Amino acid sequence: MPDQRLPSSPGFWRSPLRGPWFTSVLGVVMLVGITVLFVTGLLSYAAYNPDLSPVNDKTPDKGLLGFYLFSWPTDPSWLYRLNQGVHVTLGITLVPVLLAKLWSVVPKLFALPPARSLAHALERISLLLLVGGVLFEFVTGVLNIQLDYVFPGSFYPLHFYGAWVFFAAFVVHVVLRAPAAVRNLRRMREGKGPQEEAGMEPDFPLVSPRPEEPTVSRRGALWLVGGGSLLLFGTTVGQNFDGPLRRTALLAPHGGADPGSGPGGFQINKTAASRGISAAETSEAAWRLVVRGRSGTVRLSRAELLDLPLHSSALPIACVEGWSTSDQWWRGVRLRDLAAMVGYDADAAPDVLVESLQRRGAFRSAALRANQVRDPRSLLALDVNGEPLTPDHGYPARIIVPAAPGVLNTKWVARMTFGDL
C-alpha cells in the first residue's frame, strides 16, 4: 500500500471537494473562456498590422504562426475596443476559475508511475505544458495590464509564443479528456454520488479514499469560485467606460476618476513627460510637421495645418491593456488629404509611416495601412472635444484612426512618410 504521507498516494489528498464532477464543471468553463481568450488575443495581435512594417512587428520571427494575419479593418470603429475589453476583462475574471481548476487536479501531477501508456504519457505531458503555459500567460498578461511589466524580455513575443504553446497543450488535453468530462457532467445530471465518481478512476481517483469532513459542498465551492470571478469582473470592467462606472475598476490601471477635467479629461497611457517631450520642441515657433511622398516634402506649422480644410470624427481610444474611452470628438486634417498634398490621389492614398517626437518607450514609430489612411474618419487631430490637444494627449498633433490600437494612434507627430514602407 502506498505511503499515505506522500503526495504520490491518493490518500494524501483528503479534501472532500475534489472529484471528476467538480473538475469537469470548471473544465467546461475554462474550455469556453480560454477559447475566447485565444481568439481575441490573436485578433489583438493582427490589429497591430505586424506584417505591414518592421516598426509594427514586435515578433519578427513568428514564421508560420503568423498564417492568420490579415489587414485590420476600420469598421466598426469600436472593434478593437470591444475585442480588447473582452480579452482583458475575461482574462481577469477567469483567474479564480483557473486557480480552482489547478487545485482540483493537483493530485494528478504527483501520480505514479508517470506514464502507463502512450495515451497517458501524452496526457501527462500536455498537462504539464498546460499548467505551465496557463500560469505563464496569465502572469505576463496581468503584469502588462498593470503597466508594471517586470518579466524579463519583451511582452509581445513572450505572450505570443506562450499562447501558442499553451493552446496546443490545451487542445491535446481537451481531446484526451473530453469524453471523461462529458460522462462526468452526465452523471451530475443523474445525481450520482462521489463514491461512484471515485470508481471511474481507480488508478488515481480525484475523490479521496479517506476524505476529511466537508465544511462546504461542491456546489457551494462552485458558488465561491463564481463569486470571486464576479468580484473581479465588477472591479475590472469599468475601465471600458467613462464617468462614474470607471471608478469601480479598482483592479485596473485606469480605474478611478478620469485625469484632469474639461475637454482633455479622459484617460491616457503615456504622458509627455514620461516620453521626454519638452514644451520648447512642441511650441508654435519650433514645431513643424514634415510630410514626405511621391512629389516631395512639405513642412507645415500648426497654424498652417489649422488653415487647411478641417474635419471631425467621433472615435474612441482603446489600448492593449484593456482600457478604453467612449467616443471623443476629434478635429483635424484627414490623412488622405495629407497624402494628396504629396502627390497621391486621396482615394488611392498609400500606407504611411508616422514618427513621433517621443524618445522613450515602444512605438515611437507606427505604420498604418492604406485602408486606414483612406478612411475619411482618420485624422491628424489638432483639437479634441472643442479645444486644442493637451500635451499629454499629443499636442501639437496626433493620429486618430477608427478601430486601431491606441499605440498606433501616434502622439506628438513629427514626420509622416507616404508610400512604400
TrEMBL record:
CDD domains xrefs: SO_family_Moco
MF terms (GO), sorted A to Z: oxidoreductase activity
Residues spanning the membrane: 21-48, 86-106, 127-147, 159-180
InterPro entries: Di-haem_cyt_TM (IPR016174), Mopterin_OxRdtase_euk (IPR008335), OxRdtase_Mopterin-bd_dom (IPR000572), OxRdtase_Mopterin-bd_sf (IPR036374)
GO biological process entries: respiratory electron transport chain
Gene Ontology CC, one term: membrane
Signal peptide: none
Top-level taxonomic group: Bacteria
Keywords of this entry: Membrane, Transmembrane, Transmembrane helix
Annotated spans, Disordered: 191-211
Pfam families linked to this entry: Oxidored_molyb
Domain Oxidoreductase molybdopterin-binding stretches: 283-418
PANTHER family: BLL0505 PROTEIN, PROTEIN-METHIONINE-SULFOXIDE REDUCTASE
Protein name per the record: Oxidoreductase molybdopterin-binding domain-containing protein
Provenance organism: Streptomyces montanus
